Amino acid sequence: MGRAGMLRHEWIAVLFFAHLAVAALVRRRMPAGRRVAAGVGAVLAAAGVFAIARTAPAAVREWTPIASILAGYYLSGRTFFAPNRQIEAWLASIDRRLLGDPPFFSRWPAPIVRLLDAAYIGCFVLVPAGLGLLFAAGHRDQADLYWTLVVASELGAFAPLPYLQTRPPWVLERIAEHRDGDPRRASVVFMERATTGANTLPSGHAAGSLAVALSVIGTLPAPGLALLVLALAISVGAVVTRAHFVVDIIAGVVLAGAVWWLVPA
Known about the structure:
By secondary structure, the chain is mainly alpha-helical. The chain has a single domain, classed as Vanadium-containing Chloroperoxidase, domain 1 (Up-down Bundle). Helix content is 68%, strand content 0%.
């Protein structure tokens, strides 16, 4: 990965941030503070991607997409201001139909729930871990393909938020106030303190974790299969923690699969 020219994943990041800047401009009802934070932040983020692509050594460019993904998540969250209650009701109704009311996993043993909590939170570790596996096996040349699949899947999940605005189940169900007598579960604390409070449809957790697995499995089948299992655990965990609706997860899986199918190796 040399300095010459913008890489595919860098162009994807720039286009995403340009999309956010335009959304902040055209969404007239967006509060001024959010408009400025999202718009100016997106412009600065795009400029940062350009600057890194032109000046940074390969060793830096191989890891900076993590910053693009995090910036994309939090900046898209700044565009959230008016949840669509009809869509929220539709998403919740599908969850009740598929999961039951109360959901069947509310009766699962506590150790299983804690493992799924950890899987949900650990999704952020999975992204650099996938690239680390490729590097450890001597496949540094796969970095651009890896990040193209992962960045496209993650930022693709965040892209609809300025226009498709819903709150996640944990907010609607007031999980932080009551969750089977254990409101301080790790996932609850994480969602309260580290997330934007907005729902991404598709799910970035599902799309990103599956993209990591698909990016690795063709080159390293055994580790890739293990990553697929982890991606499944993360998707289940995102539903059990009530971070996401079932539809979010399905859409995230479809998104990652479509990116994997469309992006040439």
